[in-house]
């Protein structure tokens, strides 16, 4: 009898423990299903006189937010519902930016490398597990300039403790207290996403034809910079009935928030600041870093940051603003504005306008504003803009990876030069070759041919005289597990402006281990390691860093392009696949500033 009771008690205990575990919802990996329908719409996101026909995912911009916990599987069904046209302009493909796609090269979304573009009327599934990485990512179209409007956030929570979604229904029934979210050693009350993009008063297809054609001279500036898909182009005649207004992010006083800032811009690098609030950087490109406090961020196309913001100011509206950086001849101010709005902490019970957000946190329904708040951030002067920003100061949270101190297997130098071709077009050549989609084959993506063994395997890896390029395969083959240093060299004509270039690595994060001015030479600069604590990231900005000594040679003016800045990045070839590496200034990429790595093709796994 006693034993029977004890046994019951034991079962009861097990049940309770089971319940607690479920409430805290530990680490079961699940599959998250998403459906993306791509359709055409005419939109006017900056409340101007102008509307353009553009492509959207599920009719919205930004597209739906994808969320997952580390270890989950993300399954996205993409349907191309655009009408059939006889050019490639209505083909689509979606890339999940910053996701390394370990063992799932086929889900990387690069047309002609990993898949064929999705034709009108077709559908395509991309499924992948998020392995060993968490933080702030995004997805965007990888065809033409479609990514101007086809993009959205992708958030991977470090663990269930960082996931604001899970307990909301449960908490809504009990208290108004919140459970803080935690990621690594950081805890915060709630989070917001600020995704930055650009908007041209000109349809993307027309813009692309202009870029690639013979009338191209220089890249026209975007008419608006959008935060979460909105801004106001002209507030003079605006009414709330006509306009979405500025995006308003509400906060409670005396709390800590995680802001996820995503550079989904096509072209410009932006400064980002919130009036009267410091930003403590804790994450870059999906890796936690030691907290580092700034008053503004520099956000290049493709880059992401998480910053902690303490709401220690008085109850008011504060503007969130962006300016252009590295913009040479154009002014810095933009119309990119959003609002940080303090809310009075009050009980939900007597305020029906309150909704319950993450983990029981009270969230007000989003108000709309068509006039900017009067308190603006102060940005540093353009003259103080210096190459390398604060990159040197950042440190990985858990210490520097010993791989960055090892010798590299080899160094590949990618030197980009912009060329005006005889047919009047302009192209960016990398080591003499401007990337085009025909690098693959128009019939099958390279990956497909590799898996079907109809593609020749790379014969020789040490292609020193060609800088690692295999002219037959038209890719840069890598051996499994080699440590490869890639020097990204930018150039200009002496006396002409030198441009900044944010380079992105698919399938890998990389460490930037050195950088310098002018032209990199192996003999002189090969040993330089001037970055003390390299962090892992998937975008490295190659800053303009001109060397005037290169402008003349033997007393003569130099009339060919010379180096004007370089960075050396390191990757470990631990992820067999066909991976794009390119400048994330999309016009530059379309004009050829891209290469493909062919990494241990014999080991690529089948979907
Ligand atoms: Cu976000 Cu190939 O890029
Ligand atoms: Cu570029």
UniProtKB/TrEMBL annotation:
GO terms for molecular function: copper ion binding; oxidoreductase activity. Residues 38-159, 191-344, 443-601 form the Plastocyanin-like domain. InterPro entries: Cu-oxidase-like_N (IPR011707), Cu-oxidase_2nd (IPR001117), Cu-oxidase_C (IPR011706), Cu-oxidase_fam (IPR045087), Cu_oxidase_CS (IPR033138), Cu_oxidase_Cu_BS (IPR002355), Cupredoxin (IPR008972). Belongs to the multicopper oxidase family. The lineage of its organism: Eukaryota, Fungi, Fungi incertae sedis, Mucoromycota, Mucoromycotina. PANTHER family: FI03373P-RELATED, MULTI-COPPER OXIDASE. Residues 1-25 form the signal peptide. Pfam families: Cu-oxidase, Cu-oxidase_2, Cu-oxidase_3. This is L-ascorbate oxidase. Keywords: Copper, Metal-binding, Oxidoreductase, Signal. SUPFAM superfamilies: Cupredoxins.
């Amino acid at each position: 009898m006693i034993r029977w009771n004890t046994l019951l008690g034991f079962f009861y205990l097990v049940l309770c423990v089971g319940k607690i575990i479920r409430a805290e919802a530990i680490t079961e990996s699940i599959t998250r299903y998403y459906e993306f329908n791509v359709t055409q719409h005419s939109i006017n996101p900056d409340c101007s006189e102008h509307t353009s026909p553009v492509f959207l995912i599920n009719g919205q911009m930004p597209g739906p937010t994808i969320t997952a916990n580390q270890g989950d599987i993300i399954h996205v069904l993409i349907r191309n519902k655009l009408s059939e046209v006889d050019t490639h302009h209505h083909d689509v493909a979606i890339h999940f930016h910053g996701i390394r796609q370990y063992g799932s090269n086929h889900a990387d979304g690069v047309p002609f490398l990993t898949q064929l573009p999705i034709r009108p009327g077709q559908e395509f599934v991309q499924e992948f597990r998020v392995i060993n990485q968490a933080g702030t990512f995004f997805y965007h179209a990888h065809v033409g300039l479609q990514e101007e409007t086809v993009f959205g956030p992708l958030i991977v929570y470090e663990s269930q403790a960082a996931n604001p979604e899970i307990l909301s229904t449960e908490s809504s029934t009990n208290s108004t207290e919140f459970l803080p979210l935690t990621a690594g050693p950081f805890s915060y009350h709630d989070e917001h996403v600020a995704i930055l993009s650009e908007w041209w008063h000109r349809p993307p297809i027309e813009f692309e034809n202009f870029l690639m054609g013979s009338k191209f001279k220089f890249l026209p500036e975007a008419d608006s910079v959008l935060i979460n898909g909105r801004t106001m182009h002209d507030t003079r005649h605006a009414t709330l009935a006509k306009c979405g207004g500025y995006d308003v992010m509400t906060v409670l006083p005396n709390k800590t928030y995680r802001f996820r800032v995503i550079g989904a811009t096509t072209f410009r690098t932006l400064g980002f600041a919130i009036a009267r609030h410091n930003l403590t950087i804790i994450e870059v490109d999906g890796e936690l870093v030691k907290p580092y406090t700034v008053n503004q961020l520099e956000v290049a196309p493709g880059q992401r940051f998480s910053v902690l913001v303490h709401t220690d100011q008085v109850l008011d509206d504060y503007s969130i603003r962006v300016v252009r950086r590295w913009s040479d001849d154009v002014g810095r101010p933009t119309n990119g504005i959003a609002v940080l709005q303090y809310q009075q902490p009050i009980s939900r019970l007597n305020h029906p306008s309150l909704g319950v957000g993450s983990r029981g946190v009270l969230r007000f329904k989003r108000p709309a504003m068509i006039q900017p708040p009067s308190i603006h951030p102060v940005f540093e002067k353009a003259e103080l803009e210096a190459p390398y920003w604060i990159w040197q100061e950042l440190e990985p949270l858990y210490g520097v990876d010993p791989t960055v101190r090892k010798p590299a297997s080899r160094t590949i130098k990618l030197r980009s030069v912009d060329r005006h071709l005889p047919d009047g077009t302009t192209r960016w050549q990398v080591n003499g070759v401007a990337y085009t989609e025909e690098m693959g084959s128009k019939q099958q993506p390279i990956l497909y041919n590799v898996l079907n063994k109809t593609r020749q395997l790379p014969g020789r890896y040490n292609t020193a005289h060609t800088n690692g390029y295999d002219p037959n395969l038209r890719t840069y083959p890598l051996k499994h597990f080699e440590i490869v240093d890639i020097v990204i060299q930018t150039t200009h004509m002496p006396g002409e402006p030198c441009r900044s270039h944010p380079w992105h690595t698919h399938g890998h994060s990389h460490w930037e281990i050195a950088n310098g001015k002018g032209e990199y030479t192996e003999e002189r600069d090969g040993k330089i390691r001037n970055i003390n604590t390299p962090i892992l990231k998937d975008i490295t900005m190659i800053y303009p860093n001109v060397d005037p000594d290169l402008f003349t040679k033997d007393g003569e003016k130099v009339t060919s392009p010379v180096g004007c800045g370089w960075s050396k990045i390191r990757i470990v070839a631990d992820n067999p696949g066909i991976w794009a590496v390119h400048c994330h200034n999309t016009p530059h990429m379309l004009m050829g500033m891209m290469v493909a790595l062919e990494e241990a093709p014999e080991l690529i796994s089948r979907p």
